[in-house]
Amino acid sequence: MQGPLIDTLARQGISRRTFLKYCATLASMMALPPTAGRAMAEAMAAARRPSVIWLPFQECTGCTESITRSHSPTIEGMIFDMISLDYQETLMAAAGHQAEEARQNAMKENAGKYLLIVDGSIPLGQDGAYSCIGGRSNVDMLKEAAAGAAAVIAVGSCASFGGIPKANPNPTGAVSVSDLVKDKPIVNIPGCPPIPVVMTGVLAHYLTFGSLPELDDKGRPKSFFGDTIHDRCYRRPFYDQGKFAKTFDDEGARQGWCLFELGCKGPVTHNACATVKWNGGTSWPVESGHGCLGCSEPDFWDGGSFYKALSAPADPLKFAAAAAVVGAGAGVAVSVANRVKKSAAKATHEPITLADLEK
Amino acid sequence: MSLDAIPIHVINTPPGESGLTGNAPPLLRELLEQVRRLLATGEPSAIDLSALPLTPADLDWLREKLGAGEISVTLQANGESTLNETGCPGVWWVTHHNEQGAVTSQFIEVTFVPELVKAHPQDVAIGQEQLELMISEL
Fold it and tell me: Is A35 on the interface with B (CB under 8 A)?
């Protein structure tokens, strides 16, 4: 039904140079050699569209928001037109039985060939009853859809690693896609939400080379997740020079110095924010003066305070001493022990305090 | 309450603090190598500036060092792109903007003519058809 991509683009008034320019930028974002843009454009121009089924599970729709609200929708939207998105609850016009029928048909007609995109984690508690669509549990639907898929793309930290639903104490028994699907290639595109162009980039790679991109040990595309935020941060030179902001309003913060001591998780976070940025290249968290939260790493929600510097060890003495002072006031030794225990519990799941912010 | 009690400081760049990181000068050596390669083998190359930790001051420094050449190309395609030859022939400063005017990517290309400037044979063929149609209607 659809011819090569470039013809469709031309019909919609997108010139070849516009497409080339887009590919140059995309190649840059995918850390391909700058000269690869042309080759990519040639291959993608001739590509035909694959069928895509998108299953939303235990999620907040933030991933869909991120992708559909990418700031330059013209071309990236085009790429989405280039796939045949046969099922996406949020975007599709059909609902109820019609929607489920569309999913079944797409799975049947493209068996073994369709791409399965999943966002959200999958709850296993109570036989998966925590999240159901059309009366069927997520785990059931995932297994059925994955069986006929060419590959599975896990979009967002929840689908990739379990994300916030899996955060301690994980009340629904949430797991990631890779915990359940073992016999299909899986690409993890983590982030809370993931960067739109990373998503498009993986699709572009699939259209260009007919294969999935090279992945790291956590199943993430190396081209976008190969470097840490810290490696590519424009504030990195200040880290190297030992220039750190100590509070969010000091001279260092105003000079744009490194946010490491304010809890930036950039050094241990693999993502492309530093180069691709957000909102159509407008800015990104570190550029707007806040450290990286590490949202694309597994279990980022349980990693302690967002405002605690990475190398600063959790100091049990500090908590014990504080508790001892309170305990002495109460005058009961047992209460001291209890408070120490409480503090220790607190240390494993630290709430953000004013003291953290002003450290 | 005096103004001093409000912890807001006026920002003045201290002398000697220009925002330069020292990351720009090595790029000139890389460019030299790329220009040598272009002359020796005809192979074009490029440096992806958006992928490097460069401050705006670094970019200004680099731009100033390379200077402006004779040719400036402006491309209107999904936002403006500028392809400007620098003071060193064969070294082009390429900046892509989106429709909102934000820079989406920035390269220094070392080539005789940037790829984007050349017309694609398929597009030329379409142009040929148009001309033929025009002539047939005369």
Answer: yes
Residues of B within 8 A of A237 (CB-CB) are 21-23, 53, 55
Retrieve residue A341's tokens: 């225990």
> Are B78 and A75 in contact (CB < 8 Å)?
yes
d(CA B121, CA B128): 10
Q: Are B105 and A72 a contacting pair at CB < 8 A? A: no
CA–CA separation, A209 and A268 (whole Å): 30
Indicate if A104 and A218 belong to the same structural domain.
yes
Name the band, by pLDDT with cuts 50, 70 and 90, for residue B52. Answer: confident
**H/E segment holding residue A86:** strand A84-88
Closest C-alpha to B38, from B102, B89, B100, B98: B89
Same structural domain for residues A249 and A289?
yes
Query: Scanning every residue of chain A, which has its alpha carbon at the shortest distance from the alpha carbon of B78?
Result: A18
Give the range of the structural domain holding residue A321, as residue numbers without chain letter. 316-358
- Give the span between the Cα atoms of B41 and B57, in whole angstroms: 34
Domains of chain B: residue spans and CATH: 25-136 (3.30.1370.140)
Alpha-carbon distance of B65 to A297, in angstroms, equals 41
Number of neighbouring beta carbons within 10 Å of residue A123: 26
Q: Do B96 and A24 touch (CB under 8 A)?
A: yes
Q: Which of A180, A197, A225 is the last residue of a domain?
A: A225
Claim to verify: residue A78 and residue A199 sit in the same structural domain: yes
Per the CB < 8 A criterion, the answer to whether B81 and B98 are in contact is no
Tell me the two tokens of residue A335. Answer: 């209460």
In terms of domains, do A240 and A291 share one? yes
Q: What residues in chain A have per-residue pLDDT under 70?
A: 1-3, 5, 31, 34-35, 69-82, 312-359
Q: How confident is the model over A33-50, as pLDDT tens digits?
A: 766 777 777 777 777 778
d(CA B130, CA B138): 13
Q: A260 to chain B, minimum CA–CA distance in Å?
A: 16
pLDDT of A95 reads 86
d(CA B64, CA A188): 42
ipTM for this prediction: 0.74
CA B53 to the chain's CA centroid: 16
- pLDDT, residue A339, reads 47
Which positions 14-53 of B are in contact with A (Cβ < 8 Å)? 17, 21-23, 44-48, 50-51, 53
